[in-house]
Write a structure and sequence with these properties.
The complex is a heterodimer of chains A (371) and B (533).
Chain A lengths: L1 H10 L1 H19 L4 H20 L1 H7 L8 H20 L2 H5 L2 H31 L4 H22 L19 E3 L11 H7 L9 E3 L2 E3 L1 H17 L3 H11 L1 H6 L4 H27 L1 E3 L7 H11 L9 H25 L5 H25 L1
Antiparallel strand pairs in A: 1-4, 2-3
Helix pairs in contact in A: 2-15, 3-10, 3-13, 3-14, 3-15, 4-11, 4-13, 5-7, 5-13, 7-13, 11-13, 14-15, 14-16, 15-16
Chain B lengths: L4 E12 L2 E12 L3 E5 L6 H8 L3 H5 L4 E6 L2 E2 L5 H6 L2 E4 L11 H6 L5 E2 L2 H6 L5 E2 L1 H14 L16 H14 L5 E5 L7 H16 L3 E5 L3 H7 L2 E6 L2 E7 L5 H9 L9 H4 L9 E10 L6 E9 L3 E5 L6 H8 L5 E7 L2 E2 L7 H4 L2 E4 L3 H5 L6 H13 L3 E4 L2 E4 L1 H14 L16 H14 L4 E5 L7 H18 L2 E5 L3 H7 L2 E6 L2 E6 L5 H8 L9
Parallel strand pairs in B: 3-10, 3-11, 6-9, 9-10, 15-22, 15-23, 18-21, 21-22
Antiparallel strand pairs in B: 1-2, 1-4, 4-5, 7-8, 11-12, 13-14, 13-16, 16-17, 19-20, 23-24
Helix pairs in contact in B: 6-7, 10-20, 15-16, 15-17
The chains are: A mainly alpha (371), B alpha/beta (533).
């Protein structure tokens, strides 16, 4: 009985409710006759698709800036990197020159650009957050929103020649949604793409076992990222950063420059955001520009909170559990709901309720601890 | 007998969470008398006043025992409002004034005088028109009655000198009709000398009008100058009620301090050592620390190698600032030399690199990572400063979990930290065990100089003894120089070689632990007087 109680306390009420809801949806969809394999594959795909964006929350929280709503900065950096890489690939005509290697080069170049931009922007953003200590989350929310507005102008004014990117009628500016099918879309996760474009020896990247789809390439990349973040927080710098997030005075009295650690944490978070959006686009098969990333910060924040993180402490396990539950519900809700009632927008409604609800819950919880 | 007193609080006892802070205390005040309430920090003065005012904190923690008799009537003061109705007022140490309001508005706040208008007839008195003329008149009268002719009732409080704010606050209390008893809570603490003198005069003026005054202060000279009688508290116990004319400064000081009999450190641990004035571990030269509330203002002191050196003194006098400045938590000026080498305190971690470790007085705020494991807490500083408990893998320095674990277990055993293991979070430990974790972190640095600030604050007597004994032990066995900052004189006197009493940010005097109680009391109060022993 006592063990049961500790278990309950460890899991926490919101996570318990969401987990039960998720299980309920899974059971319901199975009862309604959906294929378990398709369901499972979908959940895994979405889990990995959002995973890195949620992982980006960890350095932010650990270094003390709280929930990084400003992850849109990283997302924008990543998107900018991706469109630049695609444009270069198009101009240099990589697909005829390099064949199967072209998508890889584009992906790597996109990541390189994205990381570079994110590192610069993230450092500046970290310096900004040091000036607004105590209200980081408010400021980061606005920064997150305004950078999207700013990037809207950028997307509109970029004069690229790649037909996949620019508006079909050939004016200036980029499309709302650019397909990655000729580029790195699905390279790590879609069996059809891998088998069609890649040589035999790379077919392990994504394959099917019966009806199950195993995106092994993406699993490895995401796993590796998680491992690096985990390892980083066991390094001297990472431990100092965690300390800075937990107790500034303590860390200062141990001779550590707290402000610098916060900047590093913010920069790493932003960089992971850039990597995250590229992996997201890779899995999704499309680059979404303009207002599409507007609420991604909220979804990431909600995911890690559902996973059990607080606004001061987060672990890799929180990322894994939270993303699985949050995305799992969204994936399973749609078919189930469609079967029962005809409200097509319900998963969207559900997403808003869950994400805002859990953020509100987490914030109110923290205030309570302070009193 | 009782009816000669305006206020008589008898046999007052109060417990906070099983901790008895007041034991059968009596307080009697006559009409028109200035009665001083004196005692060290933590003697129970504030608690007694909270009871008198019926503060919610008292009732939220289970009420109190004893009786309050006001004007010969047993009175049940159950909330601050009742106290106000009974004619008890308070002049706060931190001003309860609204800066953007005028003097009149502040004085009349909550007791505004209104005129009925058509609107207020309909909607009630909240819509009364304010009678400014009468309100200004009242304020003027109150200000005049305390001799503050030069404060204009229509000026804003913001921007006034601190002393004036204090007088406005007094005027507000005077203006309340039927005021019989005024409590001044350390009113002179924030004032300049001339302002303080002025305040004392005003107190006499008020007392002449037949209003009784309870005067809480640490400054014994002020007590001697203005009070008629006094009550002395020590450790929550009533020591004496005396008339000022029957007593001397030294006498009061002695009663306030009172050497307690308990021995905190076993005699055989102490032993004798040779301390040399040639070998200086730490030297302060004209040292300033800008720590709000605990400013250090020009301190010069030399601490010898292998010594246990104490800093004592009242709260707010600056002893806490000394260590926080060295550790880089607040800005400093002046010179600090460790083993003759000057330190650049603007650089973070400078003290740690000079083998100085620090155990903070603010355990939860500075001393611990409450959400992290005991192991992380113990190893943090040594890891960051000395690269201990790390394994080098390529360019990265990664935590050596097993080394950290072993060390944490050793420390847990050594200091007898009661926990489930090194993985338990520091926040879930009891106060005493948290303190041991802080100590373990400092010891992991293998310091040559260990600064401990309020090492026994908020921990029980058993743990207290253990911590003090351990400090003595590392001093004797490892030769570590220990600087101990404490509000508890008994503690300092039981293990220190020398004790510096800090007053107004400076070392007032350096004393020997065997000096008489009266000398300590006077030094704490900042009074220079030769004491015949």
């Amino acid at each position: 009985m006592k063990n049961l109680k500790t278990l309950y306390e460890n899991i926490g009420l919101p996570r318990l409710i969401i987990a039960l809801f998720f299980i309920l949806l899974v059971v319901a969809s199975l009862l309604l006759g959906f294929s378990p394999a398709a369901l499972f594959s979908d959940v895994v795909r979405r889990w990995l698709m959002y995973g890195t964006l949620v992982l980006a929350m960890v350095p932010g929280i650990q270094s003390g800036i709280g929930l990084n709503f400003g992850i849109s900065l990283g997302i924008s950096s990543g998107l900018l990197g991706a469109v630049l890489a695609m444009e270069i690939a198009f101009v240099r005509d990589w697909s005829t020159v390099h064949g199967a290697g072209a998508p890889w080069m584009t992906l790597l170049l996109a990541l390189a650009f994205g990381v570079l931009f994110a590192a610069i922007v993230g450092t500046l953003y970290g310096m900004l957050l040091n000036r607004v200590k105590g209200s980081e989350m408010t400021v980061s929310t606005y920064v997150g929103f305004s950078v999207i507005a700013f990037m809207n102008i950028v997307w509109l004014s970029l004069a690229f020649t790649n037909g996949e990117l620019s508006w079909p009628l050939q004016g200036q500016g980029l499309r709302n949604t650019a397909s990655l099918s000729g580029s790195f879309g699905g390279l790590l996760s879609n069996p059809d793409v891998v088998q069609a474009t890649q040589p035999e020896w790379l077919h392990w990247l994504a394959f099917r076992v019966g009806d199950f789809t195993i995106p092994l390439g993406l699993i490895l990349v995401f796993g590796l990222l998680c491992f690096f973040v985990w390892l980083f927080f066991r390094s001297k710098t990472g431990i100092a950063m965690s300390g800075a997030g937990e107790n500034q005075l303590f860390t200062t009295s141990s001779g550590i420059n707290v402000d610098r650690k916060r900047i590093q944490g913010t920069a790493i978070s932003t960089v992971l955001g850039a990597v995250g959006i590229i992996l997201y686009a890779q899995t999704y098969g499309f680059l979404q520009l303009y207002n599409a990333p507007l609420m991604m910060g909220f979804a990431s924040v909600a995911s890690i909170l559902i996973g059990g993180a607080t606004i001061r402490r987060a672990r890799i396990s929180h990322v894994l559990i939270g993303t699985l539950l949050f995305q799992g519900i969204l994936v399973t809700a749609l078919p189930v709901v469609n079967e029962v009632v005809e409200i097509g927008t319900l998963p969207e409604v559900l997403r808003i309720i869950i994400s805002n609800g859990i953020i509100l819950y987490a914030l109110s919880k923290t205030k309570g601890e302070n009193q | 007998m009782d009816d000669q007193y305006l206020l008589s609080m008898s046999n007052i006892s109060k417990e906070y969470y099983g901790n008895r802070v007041l034991k059968n205390v009596n307080l009697n005040v006559k009409t028109g008398e200035i009665h001083a309430l004196v005692g060290e920090n933590g003697a129970g003065k504030s608690t007694l006043m909270n009871i008198l005012f019926g503060m919610p904190v008292i009732f939220a923690t289970g009420g109190f025992e004893g009786e309050i008799v006001l004007n010969g009537q047993p009175t049940d003061v159950d909330c601050p409002h009742t106290a106000m109705n009974c004619g008890i007022g308070m002049v706060h140490q931190e001003f309860m004034l609204i800066p953007e309001f005028t003097v009149t508005e502040n004085i009349k706040l909550g007791r505004e005088i209104g005129e009925t208008t058509a609107l207020s007839k309909l909607f009630g008195p909240l819509l009364d028109k304010l009678n400014w003329k009468q309100m200004s008149g009242d304020s003027r009268k109150a200000l005049d009655s305390i001799g503050m002719m030069n404060i204009e009732e229509y000026t804003k409080v913001a921007g006034m000198p601190i002393g004036y704010k204090q007088f406005v606050e007094i005027a507000r209390e005077i203006d309340k009709s039927g005021i019989k008893l005024l409590v001044f809570d350390e009113p002179t603490a924030v004032l300049t000398e001339s302002e303080a003198d002025r305040l004392l005069e005003i107190m006499r003026l008020i007392a002449q009008k037949g209003i009784a005054i309870i005067f809480i202060t640490h400054r014994l000279t002020e007590v001697m100058a203005v009070a008629d009688s006094m009550t002395i508290l020590r450790d929550g116990e009533f020591v004496a009620r005396k008339d000022v004319k029957d007593t001397t400064l030294a006498n009061i000081a002695e009663l306030m301090i009172g050497r307690k009999v308990e021995k905190l450190v076993e005699e055989n641990l102490l032993g004798e050592r040779e301390l040399s004035d040639e070998k200086i571990a730490l030297e302060f030269r004209d040292y300033y620390v800008d720590m709000p509330g605990e400013r250090v203002r020009g301190m010069d002191v030399k601490i010898r190698e292998g010594e246990i050196f104490g800093f004592g003194g009242l709260a707010g006098q600056g002893k806490i600032g000394i260590a926080n400045g060295i550790m880089g938590l607040y800005d400093t000026a002046g010179e600090v030399l460790a083993y003759g080498k000057p330190m650049d305190l603007s650089k973070l971690g400078e003290a740690l690199r000079h083998d100085i470790a620090f155990v903070s007085e603010d355990r939860r705020g500075v001393g611990l990572l409450l959400g992290e494991s005991i192991e992380r807490n113990i190893t943090f500083s040594a890891m960051q400063i000395k690269d201990e408990f790390l394994t080098k893998i390529g360019p990265m320095k990664i935590l050596n979990k097993s080394a950290a674990d072993t060390h944490a277990k050793d420390m847990i055993k050594l200091l007898d930290i009661r926990c489930t293991g090194p993985a338990q979070t520091a926040g879930s430990l009891s106060g005493g065990n948290q303190q041991k974790v802080c100590l373990a972190r400092a010891l992991t640095m293998a310091p040559k100089i260990l600064i401990v600030s309020e090492p026994t604050r908020g921990i029980d007597i058993g743990a207290k003894k253990l911590v003090l004994e351990y400090l003595t032990k590392i001093n004797r066995e490892l030769g570590t120089t220990i600087i101990m900052i404490s509000s508890e004189l008994v503690e300092l006197r039981s293990l220190c070689d020398r004790i510096a009493i800090v007053s107004e940010g400076k070392v007032f005097s350096i004393m020997h632990p065997d000096d008489p109680d009266a000398a300590y009391g006077l030094a704490m109060a900042g009074v220079r007087e030769e004491v015949a022993s």
